[in-house]
UniProtKB/TrEMBL annotation:
The lineage of its organism: Eukaryota, Metazoa, Ecdysozoa, Arthropoda, Hexapoda. Residues 335-369 form a coiled coil. GO terms for biological process: signal transduction. Pfam families: RASSF8-10_RA. InterPro entries: N-RASSF (IPR033593), RA_dom (IPR000159), RASSF8/10_RA (IPR048945), Ubiquitin-like_domsf (IPR029071). The keyword Coiled coil applies. Residues 132-148 have a biased composition (Pro residues). Residues 120-151, 390-417 are annotated as: Disordered. This is Ras-associating domain-containing protein.
Length: 417
């Protein structure tokens, strides 16, 4: 896969990046590709947010975590600068550790290493020839005094002094350059040894990866075989399970059939016993029928005799009914005559009521007339005390109801006549 990294405003693409590739591997590849040295850090930027990535983090995994926002994520390679205010005495003699590493499966060209090493040593504070201080000039009192007699000797001495100083400076610079070259050779030799060792390790690990890949392929084939075998076994197990279910069903059916057979046998035995009982009952019933037939014949004879007697009684009752009809006709005639008499009595009662009302009116007039005239004391006494009481009781009801008089709460003893 490819990873886009911005280096000093230029977008660079790193190829062969996997999920296991770390930030250290990416920094190492970019540093050697651009031919730069120093301390570098990989920065993750999303819109206005920035975050420094650790050397062991995986940029591809980080980019995959963003999901749909992965296109907005940018990776920037930034170079860390060392502060210049720090005195040269306190600086370490060793080279600053770069935040770089070896990319797996990618061989490093020798030329880039050579250039990087050169830049590293060129940028170091102790190995650069510009910063080497020249040896101080000898003080003037150490030089021999110039001769007074001859100017030529003085000029010769001046020339020799200049040559000596130039030779001294050249020798010092030459020694420093030789030492620096020797150091660089040793460093290059050690780096070449490290490169060969790393190449051997890479080859070893590539062989290991191939072996592991072969093992994985073999394991995948074995897994396929095992899965196919398991599928066949599952199919067989399912078929056997179906057969087992059928056998269990057959066994259950056998059990049910056996239980049904036992029930049927018991029912047959019960039926046989019931048949015997029924036969006995049939015999008893036949005897009872014969006896009942005899009884019925006797009953029929007695019924015939009874019917004859009933017919005789019916004839007698019909004669009585005819006599009762004749008597009822006579009663009807008497009732009609009684009704006529009652109507006559009612008319006579109405006439008597009218007579009574006339008498009452006459009594009222007589009373009024008597009130106007002073009555004698005996009459006043009769008026005050009322008429003398008689022992006879008042007749309640009409004379028609005397025959059917019923005692009540007012007349508990009936009607007095």
């Amino acid at each position: 896969m490819e990873l886009k990294v911005w280096v000093e405003g230029i977008q660079r693409i790193v190829c062969g990046v996997t999920e296991n590739t770390t930030c250290q591997d990416v920094v190492f590849a970019l540093a050697h590709a651009t031919g730069k040295s120093g301390r570098f850090t990989l920065i993750e930027r999303w819109r206005n947010n920035e975050r420094q990535l650790a050397p062991h983090e995986n940029p591809m995994k980080i980019q995959l975590k963003w999901g749909e926002y992965s296109n907005d994520v940018q990776f920037i390679l930034q170079r860390n600068t060392i502060s210049k205010k720090q005195p040269e005495v306190n600086r370490p003699t060793l080279l600053p550790p770069d935040n770089v590493g070896v990319v797996k499966g990618v061989q490093q060209p020798i030329k880039t290493v050579h250039l990087e090493v050169r830049e590293q040593f060129a940028g170091s504070p102790q190995s650069s020839p510009k910063k080497v201080a020249p040896p101080p000039a000898p003080p003037p009192y150490r030089d021999p005094p110039p001769p007074i007699s001859s100017k030529k000797q003085q000029i010769f001495q001046d020339v020799t002094k200049i040559r000596l100083t130039e030779n001294g400076l050249y020798n010092a610079q030459y020694r420093e350059l030789i030492a620096l070259i020797n150091y660089q050779r040793e460093k290059l030799n050690s780096q070449f040894a490290d490169i060969t060792k790393f190449d051997a390790e890479i080859v070893f690990w590539e062989g290991k990866e191939k072996e592991k890949q072969l093992q994985l392929d073999y394991l995948a084939q074995e897994m396929l075989k095992i899965t196919n075998h398991t599928k066949t076994q599952k199919d067989q197990i399912q078929a056997l399970a179906y057969v087992e279910e059928e056998t269990e069903l057959v066994k259950q059916q056998e059990k049910t059939l056996k239980s049904e057979i036992t029930l049927l046998r018991s029912k047959l035995a019960n039926c046989e016993t019931e048949l015997l009982q029924c036969k006995n009952k049939m015999r008893l019933l036949a005897d009872e029928l014969q006896s009942e037939q005899r009884m019925t014949t006797k009953k029929t004879e007695s019924r015939i005799q009874m019917e004859r007697g009933i017919l005789i009684e019916l004839e007698r009752i019909q004669k009585d009914i005819e006599l009762a009809k004749q008597s009822s006709e006579l009663h009807h005639l008497t009732v009609e005559t009684l009704k006529k008499e009652v109507a006559q009595l009612e008319t006579s009662i109405i006439e008597k009521k009218k007579q009574v009302e006339q008498l009452v009116n006459e009594m009222k007039e007589a009373n009024l007339h008597s009130l106007t005239i002073a009555p004698p004391p005996e009459d006043l006494r009769l008026i005050m005390e009322g008429p003398p009481r008689s022992s006879t009781r008042k007749m309640i009801g009409s004379p028609r109801q005397l025959e059917n008089a019923v005692p009540t709460s007012k007349n508990p003893h009936g009607v007095w006549v």
